Amino acid sequence: MEVITSFRKQEEFALDTTKARQSDILNGLKNDGIVILPNYIQEAVLEGLNKEFETLLKTKNRAIKAFDLEKGAGVGITRSKLKEKEFPYTHWFYNQPLMHDIKDKYVHPTAPLNSKIYVVNDLVGTTTYANTLHYDVQKCLKFFIYLNDVTANNGAFEFIAGTHHWVEDIRRSKDANKITFENRDFSRELPHDESHIIPLEAKAGTMFIFDTDIFHRTGTTSIGERKIMRGHTYFDQAKAKDPLFKKTI
Ligand SMILES: [Fe+2]
Q: Separation of 159 CA from ligand 1 center, angstroms?
């Protein structure tokens, strides 16, 4: 397999949040599979999200389910069941008009926006499947936010931009049926050069949007902690015929 080369820096994927137009975001997603919006979240909102982050991790109900982590904590939220009164910031943030527009154009108008939201506190010793370079078996668009400052030391998200094109070719080929949860290793056989992987180091309040078909992984938290939220919009929840929307098995 030929190694996919990419010699680019993190800054090349960042837009000026105050000036970025929706078309800039869409172009970035189409070409690179990722767009970074530094300082996207205003201070008061960031404070509100951080407060809700703490409460969400302690809440269990119809909408909010904890998942098992040896170290750290995480919950998965069904957005349609999340109570606005209890979590106004999270509820508002993941239902923004901008996100709807991007989702309609990049995924599909029939795909439900952010049907799941994941809230995770990574600590030293937190490990997941996602620590290995991969693309998600279930293709999705993620709106990912850092709630604290993140560097390579505390678990920066890592990626190789543009690799979603390579994965999309597989999804359109006869090998597409090899991409299943059962056959997870297949989505980890990736032609890449370790030195091309970029750790996304950024301040609290940064949002990045990415297509999970890019090669990516969760960095390891070796000092301190990482606080994140991410909204998932699944391609296979759209009503569309293109192979990219094929039901995940
Ligand atoms: Fe992933």
A: 10
Q: Is 169 left (phi over 0), alpha (psi -120 to 50) or beta?
A: alpha
Closest CA to 147 of 43, 231, 229: 229
Residue 71, token pair as written in the block: 């170290």
Distance (angstroms) between ligand 1 centre and the Cα of 139 equals 9
List C-alpha distances in Å: 134 to 61, 138, 186, 188, 189: 31, 12, 9, 5, 8
Name all domains of the chain by residue range, CATH numbers in brackets: 22-234 (2.60.120.620)
Q: Write down the pTM of the prediction.
A: 0.95
The structure tokens listed for 153 are 């030391």
217 CA to middle of ligand 1, Å?
6
Please check whether residue 64 is in contact with residue 77, taking contact to mean a CB–CB distance below 8 angstroms.
yes
Residue 48 Cα to ligand 1 middle (Å) = 26
| Tens of pLDDT, residue by residue, the chain (249 residues) | 566 666 788 999 999 999 999 999 999 999 999 999 999 999 999 999 999 999 999 999 999 999 888 788 999 999 999 999 999 999 999 999 999 999 999 999 999 999 999 999 999 987 777 888 999 999 999 999 999 999 999 999 999 999 999 999 999 999 999 999 988 888 888 988 888 999 999 999 999 999 999 999 998 889 999 999 999 999 999 999 999 999 988
Please state, in angstroms and rounded to a whole number, the distance separating the CA atoms of residues 151 and 201. 5
| Ligand 1 center–CA 133 separation, angstroms | 8
Q: What protein residues have CB closer than 5 angstroms to ion ligand 1?
A: 130, 136
